[in-house]
Amino acid sequence: MNYEPPAIYGIIGNPVERSLSPVMHNTAFKALKVNAVYKLFPLADAQDLKLFMEDLKEQDNPVFGLNVTVPYKEDVLPYLDSVDALADKIGAVNTIVIDHQRKLHGFNTDGPGFMSHLTELGFDFKGKRLAVLGAGGTARAIISVLCLLPEGPESIAVYNRTRGNADVLLEDLRQKIPVEKVRIVDEPEDLNIELADLLINTTNVGMKDSEALLIDAGALHKDMLVYDVIYNPQETKLLKEARARGARTSNGLGMLFFQGMLAFWHWSDVELDEEIKKIVRKSLGEASLRHGS
Ligand SMILES: NC(=O)c1ccc[n+]([C@@H]2O[C@H](COP(=O)([O-])OP(=O)(O)OC[C@H]3O[C@@H](n4cnc5c(N)ncnc54)[C@H](OP(=O)(O)O)[C@@H]3O)[C@@H](O)[C@H]2O)c1
Q1: Out of 30, 39, 73, 181, which one is annotated catalytic?
Q2: In this structure, are 191 and 234 located in the same domain?
Q3: Per residue in 243-291, pLDDT tens?
Q4: Which terminus of the chain has fewer Cβ atoms in its 10 Å neighbourhood, N or C?
Q5: Binding site membership of 203 for ligand 1 (Cβ less than 6 Å)
């Protein structure tokens, strides 16, 4: 019998157990009849990461592509042989391609994934007033692509629980990106959500139903879109409150899908056809329902 071992892809992070990426990519591999499998690689700490990344260089290592999640999106940078221009500007990598010479190439598909989903939702950023909750890795990717838009928003107000982290993010981005439109505020009220066209939650707040909102729900209004990067639960308290006030709402499942499809393209050079994308998106939706229950 002629047995070819499958090429391995996967996600590194801590934790990774609840990731929906295996469903998405394994569905795509299956639909394309590709001999590959996507696995979870939980890495406990920096030492685990170091060993894993060094091992990727070995000629017989079967791993050819990775996603990177919390807390390693910046920590992987020193191990890479190249980082593409956008990931370099963002300062974080969520996708790694390993070529046949075992060279490691880093990309960031979170920002473009967000942008593709907002485009699908028909949101035009030109001249709009944006409010952002959070200043972690996801905020870094989203704010970067927003600042790089040729016809971008009028303003981007950012509130983060730890003001210092937001200041560091802005100073980091300022080295490589025009950030004049970004304003860090001290209190959630200073976001002026009453006047915002788009509110984006990039924090973890909302993953547990018991968590209080970071903002006053009374400020949400019908002329805005409220976007939560969280997709589990499908409708966070923030989205519920926004919907109750007539706002348009979206969770982050579409962003997850688009960032994943872009990662897949980086690994394989294959642009999936619409039929396969539909199958992949359906599997993702079903898996998110299962995880949410
Ligand atoms: N839809 C998608 O495709 C997608 C992609 C990536 C991530 N995500 C989701 O995005 C979320 C954030 O991920 P990340 O990678 O940006 O994480 P991260 O880098 O750890 O950042 C977490 C952010 O949330 C804030 N935060 C955490 N707990 C808080 C609390 N109790 N009260 C107020 N603020 C709090 C942190 O503020 P401090 O600075 O004060 O700690 C920080 O701004 C996660 O839920 C993740 O699943 C979704």
Answers
A1: 73
A2: yes
A3: 999 999 999 999 999 999 999 999 998 888 999 999 999 999 999 988 7
A4: N
A5: yes
